[in-house]
Write a structure and sequence with these properties.
- The protein has 180 residues and is mainly alpha-helical.
- It contains seven helices and three strands.
- A three-stranded antiparallel sheet has the order 1-3-2.
- Helix 2 packs across helix 5.
């Protein structure tokens, strides 16, 4: 019995098939990673994947605070989505909102001590889950090479992902104050 072959689909000119395949693989991989990793994070944080993204960004920012507009830009959340996520984080005691002393229109999201502990625990869980997922799939060199290849693409399609707030001088002085 002959093997079944599907008729070839439409071809993209100028080698576009490779590009379409690449983007398709990236999207399928991202969806699979979310589906595989989210349950562990949801269980660890109790607040969902978007909240994890916000908490990690705050934890990795000097002073553990970002302007709300920068949180929205980095995460790609709409103003309404950011407000809902931030409300849940504030209600859980993981983040506080702080007014900007130099601009009454602006506010900051600041990680609380409880939030820092929670994100540290969640990151440890996430590291274990990611390591188990990648074990036997990609080498350390492959991981570094893939990250190096993806960073400029990410920067092109989501340039604000690595945006960091420049805190005004008054906020820098507050950064040394103890967390709530």
């Amino acid at each position: 019995m002959a093997a079944r072959t599907d008729p070839p689909g439409p071809r993209c000119p100028s080698g576009g098939d490779d590009q379409i395949t690449l983007v398709g693989l990236l999207l399928e991989t991202a969806a699979g990673l979310r589906r595989t990793l989210s349950p562990g994070l949801d269980g660890e944080l109790g607040v969902g994947g978007q909240s994890f993204d916000i908490l990690v960004r705050l934890a990795r920012t000097p002073g553990e605070r970002l302007r709300m507009c920068d949180v929205a830009a980095q995460t790609g959340l709409s103003p309404g989505g950011l407000t809902r996520s931030m409300d849940r984080l504030v209600a859980a005691g993981l983040v506080v909102r702080e007014a900007c002393p130099d601009d009454r229109r602006a506010s900051y999201a600041h990680l609380t001590e409880r939030g820092a502990a929670k994100v540290a625990d969640a990151l440890e869980r996430h590291r274990r889950d990611v390591a188990a997922l990648l074990d036997g799939t990609l080498s350390t060199g492959d991981i570094r090479a893939l990250a190096d290849l993806l960073r400029p693409l990410r920067d092109r399609v989501h340039p604000d992902a690595a945006l960091v707030s420049d805190p005004p001088p008054a906020v820098e002085m507050l950064a040394s104050a103890p967390r709530r």
